Amino acid sequence: MGFNLSYNSFTNSILTKVTSLETVVKLLFHLSLSAALSDNGQHSPTWHRNTCIVLGCIAEKLAGANSVATFRQETLHYLTANLKMNHNPNVILFSLIALEKYAQTSENRSTICAYFNQQNSHPLKVLESWLTSDDFVQRQVGFCAQWALDNLFVKEGRSYSFEVVDTKGINAMLNHEDVSEYLKIGPNGLEARCDVSSFESVRCTFQVTEGVWFYEALIVTPGVMQIGWATKDSKFFNHEGYGIGDDEFSVAYDGCRQLVWHNASSEQHSHESWQPGDILGCLLNMDSRQIQFYLNGSALPKAHTKLFDSLGRRKDVGFFAAASFMSFQQCRFNFGADPFVFPPEGIAFCCFNDFAELSDEQRVILP
User: Fold this and answer.
1) What whole-number distance in Å separates Cα of residue 105 and Cα of residue 116?
2) Name one Pfam family in it (predicted).
């Protein structure tokens, strides 16, 4: 099974000690959160990043009235003060994610929106400019800022991203109607991110039934993602930790743990662990009944065939590009709208973008 329990174990280790509202209040008192504390955070970014992760855990697990009761003004001022662009990007990122989790409760969301609207410059609008940064932590901040502005902290006078992002040349994208419930999909339909403690999955919009096909994924974060191919029969059980590669109808490359997954079993592969900026290539050859994975143009020594063995000689099987994401993971897909960085050499292949079609309505990723 592909689910990594490290995040759940971390949150549970915190929450076994945080068993009541009274305990949470004591913890917050001990942390002594404030805007002034944030200003000192540049000298100890690891402590502040971890503090923000803890706050996010509390907000995610203690929803409703308890979340409102623990979201004090000091917490609000601390987290929002962390959003200054001169702060460590990791601290900014997890402060923003903590605010997102507090905003799951409508009263907290209203409080945060009111605070943002009182500022001369909306901090998330500023951070959104990092969306295409070459620094991959800043890029995550930009993605989360854009998503939050579209979905949670809507700014009056700002157009929704789907209204301004040009998707006319994109003919295949992640399918916002074939996705588990908590995955974030960017307005271009090509970038996805998970910030919850479940294993979130998605398929693309285009199915292939014959021939040789290739796509790439830009790795934004180096953690647990399972990226590969799935049929329409592959199931997403996000809360149970089952995703792509965890049933007989899918296969996935896991560059963090250096594994190839199929039917909830894994085989070690020889590539180095992936890093931000790496390019994963996924080649499906339905003629030879093989699947090959590439990291920065380097192919695995042995192609994968077990998925085809599981499916037998069925002629009604079609495949989708698909992926699953563990907490705080993000990548961007290229289905051929842009030139491939490492196209397979010596192999004639097709790309989705040259054959797929999307209506104007299908191109829109609504908040």
Assistant:
1) 17
2) SPRY
Average pLDDT value for the chain: 93
Q: Using an 8 Å Cβ cutoff, are 165 and 200 in contact?
A: no
The CATH number of the domain where 236 resides is what?
A: 2.60.120.920
Expressed as residue numbers, the domain containing 277 is 174-355
CB 263 within 8 A of CB 247: yes
Closest CA relative to residue 48, chosen from 16, 10, 1, 90: 90
Give me the torsion for CA of 68, 74, 80, 83, rounded to 10°: -130
DSSP state of 129: G
Longest dimension (CA), the chain: 66
Burial (0-12, 13-18, 19+ Cβ within 10 Å), 276: middle
Query: Using CA atoms, how far apart are residues 116 and 97, in angstroms rounded to an integer?
Result: 15
Q: Is 241 left (phi over 0), alpha (psi -120 to 50) or beta?
A: left
Interatomic CA distance for residues 119 and 81, integer angstroms: 11
pLDDT tens for each residue of 298-319: 999 999 999 999 998 777 789 9
Instruction: Detail the DSSP E strand segments found in the chain.
Output: 174-179, 184-185, 191-194, 200-204, 212-219, 225-230, 250-254, 259-262, 265-268, 279-285, 290-295, 298-299, 320-325, 329-334
Q: Do residues 265 and 296 share a domain?
A: yes
Structure tokens at 282: 């996924």
Q: Name the domain count of the chain.
A: 2
